Every structure is written in structure tokens, then in C-alpha cells.
UniProtKB/TrEMBL annotation:
Record field: compositional bias (Low complexity): 278-289
Superkingdom of this protein's organism: Eukaryota
Transmembrane annotation, as ranges: 20-43, 55-77, 89-109, 129-153, 165-190, 310-332, 344-364
Composition bias type Polar residues, residue spans: 253-277
Species in which this protein is naturally found: Patella caerulea (Rayed Mediterranean limpet)
Compartment list: Cell membrane
Protein name: G-protein coupled receptors family 1 profile domain-containing protein
Cellular component, GO, one term: plasma membrane
Membrane topology per record: Multi-pass membrane protein
Keyword Cell membrane: yes
Ranges for domain G-protein coupled receptors family 1 profile: 35-361
Alphabetical list of CDD domains matching this protein: 7tm_classA_rhodopsin-like
Record flagged with keyword Cell membrane: yes
Region (Disordered): 253-289
Organism ancestry: Eukaryota, Metazoa, Spiralia, Lophotrochozoa, Mollusca
Length: 386
């Protein structure tokens, strides 16, 4: 059977097969929409602190819905005009969605960091509305531009299968780098704000003035392992293999003040030192005294290593099976027309994208972040400790 006869006899000339195929794609698209809605409901009802994450997943779902709703239209239009390069259009659309998501996430994270910074400086409703509106507008501008790029690429490249393969490889690398940059950028910006806020606080020695009588009663309960000796407090750190005791002076001039550990004014911030290895004291940074932090990676680097590792796992867990399947199909079916294997492969790759990916991403982000972070921190301590 020749290529032209196969194409004409099975798809373009048979309205029943064409209708079933379009119905199949439409049904999968609707199931993807339904599962994305369920995902959003689960996120909204969750009591976890995922306000920012829900914003990103909401925008991810919007991007998915846009492309999912256009799939049946693209298929129908391609069949009607007899364009045999529709598979190229679908692949380009699938690969551009993660790029849009990455750019949107990067934009929203950056805008949100500016919003958080504005709350610290001038917490007014005007600044809140401004940064939220800016994030939404920029996201939709990026979406529109990528849809235009999608159309231009499909128009220019979809007649050459070899070029399309190269384009898909390039898009895969680009989307990987973009999402990686968005993760690292969010970590760096957030830790930068934490450092700036911590440095702007009152120095440790100015607020840790404790009378000897008060210190002798309270320091045991505060540190758990502290003891008073000759006007100094010795803190027994948990990681005694690196450094057993850290010596810090206590001034005994103002009675009644027992607050030794300065806390952040904004509860949304977390101390980067809390992500360090066990035994690292945030007081050593604030007080300027040498501590375990000097023997380990700084908090920003540790966060980047941890989140980058989780990102790599999530990325290849989501896209790895899809690309392996694509490679197998291409190797087996390459001598035949693209339409020959796309009849069952396109619905499969669409289903993987709109259904499995969001749940894997949520699982990795929520479950692994809690369960694996502690182990990764311990590995960082063992590998990078000097």
C-alpha cells in the first residue's frame, strides 16, 4: 500500500474514522480539564502553606487548558485542508506549553518577590494591587507571544520532518534550562530578602542583655544544653563531631530580657539557616561569632542544590517516559508515514501531558520536599564539610 493510498483511504477519505479520532482527542482533552480542576480543588482545600504554589499551578493549568482546547480544532482544521503536517503542529504545541509555564513561573516568582519586598517597605493596598496586576498582565502577554511563535514555527517548519526533530530537541533543552533558572532565581531572590531583613535587625549583643540571676535560670531552658561559667554561656551543638562548643558573651546589664533568638518580623519568611546541617546556629551569623556555618555551604547554595535536585527528578519523571516512548515509536515506525503511528501516539502523549504531569509535579513538590529534604541536607553536610 502506497503512502498516498494509505493516507487517503484511512483518514482523509473516511469521515467515520476522522470523526472517531477527533472525538478521541476531544475526550482526552476534557478528561485533562476535569483532572486539572480536581487538582486545583485539592490544592485549595489543602491546609499546607502553598499559597504561592497554588498561584503557579493555577497559571500552569490555564496554559494547559488553552492548548488542550486548541487540539481538536487543530486536528479538524488539518484534516479539512488536507495538511499532512499536523503532527508537527501538535508536537510544537506540546513543547511550547512547558516553555510558557516556565516563563510564567519565573515572571510570577520575580513579581511576587517584589511584592513581598514592597510589603516590608510600604505595605499598602495600592502596592499589593499593582504587583498582582503586573504579574497577571505579564503572564498573559507571554502567553500571547508564545501562541504567535507557535503558529509561525508550525507554518515555517512543519513541512520538514527532520527540521522538526531538531526543533523539538532544542525546545526540550530550552525548557529544561528555563525551568531550572526559575527555580534557582526564586531561591536566590528569597534568600537575598531574608539576608537583607536579618542584617537590618538589631544586633544580637544589643538585644541579648541578661542579668546573671535571670540567665542562670533561663539559659538552661532556652538552649537545652547551656551552662553558666565565669560570665559566659557555652552552647552544646547537636553536631559535636564538627565543633563541640561555641562561646558567646552575655552582657549582664539589663534584667528581664530573655529573648536570645531574634525572629523574623514577617512570618512568611523562613530563616535560611534552618535549612543548614544539624547543629548550625543562626545566632552565630547574627552575632558575628565564628560558628559551624563557616564550615559548611552557605544557605543559598544548599537551597539551590536541594531544589535543583528535586527539580531534575520531577522533570525527568514527568517527561522521561514520554520521550522514551517517542524514541521507540520513531525507531520502529520511521520507514512509514508519520500519520501511521500518530493515530495512537498523539492521544497517548496528550494524555500524559494533561493528566499525569500535574499530579507528579504536585507529588514531588509536596511529598518529597518534606520527606527527602532532611536526608539531602545530611548528605550536603557529609560531602561539603571542610
Amino acid at each position: 500500500m502506497s503512502t498516498s493510498n494509505w493516507n487517503n483511504s484511512t483518514v482523509e477519505a473516511d469521515p467515520v474514522i476522522r470523526g472517531v479520532y477527533i472525538l478521541l482527542l476531544s475526550g482526552i482533552s476534557l478528561s485533562g480539564i476535569f483532572l486539572n480542576i480536581i487538582l486545583l480543588v485539592i490544592i485549595r482545600q489543602s491546609e499546607l502553606k502553598i499559597r504561592r504554589r497554588s498561584v503557579l499551578i493555577t497559571n500552569t493549568t490555564i496554559a494547559d487548558l488553552i492548548i488542550v482546547l486548541t487540539f481538536p480544532v487543530d486536528i479538524w482544521y488539518s484534516f479539512e485542508i488536507g495538511n499532512r503536517g499536523y503532527l508537527c503542529v501538535i508536537f510544537l504545541s506540546i513543547k511550547l506549553v512547558p516553555i510558557f509555564v516556565a516563563l510564567t513561573s519565573l515572571t510570577l516568582l520575580s513579581v511576587e518577590r517584589l511584592y513581598i519586598l514592597s510589603k516590608l517597605l510600604t505595605p499598602t493596598p495600592a502596592t499589593t494591587y499593582f504587583y498582582q496586576t503586573t504579574g497577571a498582565v505579564v503572564s498573559w502577554i507571554v502567553c500571547t507571544l508564545l501562541l504567535v511563535i507557535n503558529g509561525l514555527l508550525a507554518q515555517q517548519l512543519c513541512s520538514f520532518n527532520l527540521v522538526v526533530v531538531y526543533v523539538l530537541i532544542v525546545l526540550f533543552v530550552v525548557e529544561f534550562l528555563l525551568i531550572l533558572v526559575s527555580y534557582i532565581t526564586s531561591v536566590v531572590i528569597m534568600n537575598g530578602l531574608n539576608t537583607k531583613q536579618r542584617n537590618s535587625e538589631v544586633p544580637f549583643k544589643a538585644r541579648a542583655k541578661i542579668a546573671p540571676s535571670v540567665a542562670s535560670k533561663s539559659v538552661k531552658s532556652i538552649t537545652g544544653t547551656g551552662r553558666i561559667s565565669d560570665g559566659h554561656r557555652y552552647v552544646d551543638n547537636a553536631n559535636s563531631s564538627l565543633e563541640s562548643f561555641t562561646k558567646m558573651s552575655i552582657l549582664s546589664t539589663t534584667p528581664g530580657s530573655t529573648r536570645l533568638n531574634p525572629t523574623s518580623a514577617d512570618p512568611s519568611f523562613t530563616d535560611p539557616a534552618s535549612d543548614n546541617c544539624q547543629g548550625t546556629s543562626s545566632l552565630s551569623q547574627t552575632s558575628g561569632q565564628p560558628g559551624l556555618i563557616n564550615r559548611k555551604l552557605d544557605a543559598v547554595t544548599q537551597n539551590i542544590i536541594r531544589r535543583t535536585g528535586l527539580f531534575v527528578v520531577a522533570f525527568f519523571a514527568c517527561y522521561g517516559p514520554t520521550f522514551v516512548l517517542a524514541g521507540v515509536v520513531v525507531q520502529i515506525k520511521m520507514p512509514y508515514p508519520a500519520l501511521n503511528y500518530s493515530f495512537w501516539f498523539v492521544p497517548l502523549i496528550l494524555y500524559v501531558h494533561v493528566t499525569i504531569y500535574p499530579f507528579i509535579a504536585l507529588y514531588v513538590d509536596e511529598y518529597w520536599r518534606r520527606r527527602v529534604t532532611a536526608k539531602i541536607n545530611k548528605w550536603c553536610c557529609k560531602i561539603f564539610t571542610t
